Amino acid sequence: VLGLLVWALIADTTYYLHAAYGWVMFVSVFFWILTVLFFVTYLLQLQLKFYMIPWPLVLMIFNAAATVLYVTAFVTCAAAVQPTSWRQWDYNRRATASFFACLTMITYGVSTFFSFRAWKGLGSNAATSQVTDHA
């Protein structure tokens, strides 16, 4: 939802007049589409059919890449906002898009942390942590 807000707010401005917003649009639309695809994959439990793919590692790499690229998109978007814009609604939308890009960046960062824990197996439940080799 946050990524959708970023690209919808930027798309509603005259972003094509500023090259910096092209990068922000690319990052936000690209990762929004990939996030939706991963969501549908997990919703339909398709990852169980492709068991040979290390899904926790794939998600960790995806979230880490999204975090890094959203850092660049956030900095680019925030630096390109000009308070002296001749169109006040463009300024408001771009500033709001910068705010939501920051939130999206933080969200992907937190998701990277949890993906790392899942990949390393640090998030085991009580049943798996009770199994020992004392038989």
From TrEMBL:
GO biological process, any: myelination
Q: Which InterPro entries does this UniProt record tie to the protein?
A: MAL, Marvel, MARVEL-CKLF_proteins
Subcellular location(s): the record lists:
Apical cell membrane; Myelin membrane
Q: Which UniProt keywords apply?
A: Cell membrane, Membrane, Transmembrane, Transmembrane helix
The record's annotation in Pfam families points to:
MARVEL (PF01284)
User: Which cellular component appears as one GO term in the record?
Assistant: myelin sheath
Protein topology in the membrane: Multi-pass membrane protein
Principal location: membrane
Keyword Kinase attached: no
Ranges where the MARVEL domain occurs: 1-120
Q: Which GO terms describe its molecular function?
A: structural constituent of myelin sheath
Span-the-membrane segments of this chain are: 20-44, 56-81, 96-116
Record's keyword annotation contains Transmembrane: yes
- Record note on quaternary structure: Forms oligomers.
Concerning its family, UniProt says: Belongs to the MAL family.
| Record's protein name | Plasmolipin
Q: What is the lineage of its organism?
A: Eukaryota, Metazoa, Chordata, Craniata, Vertebrata
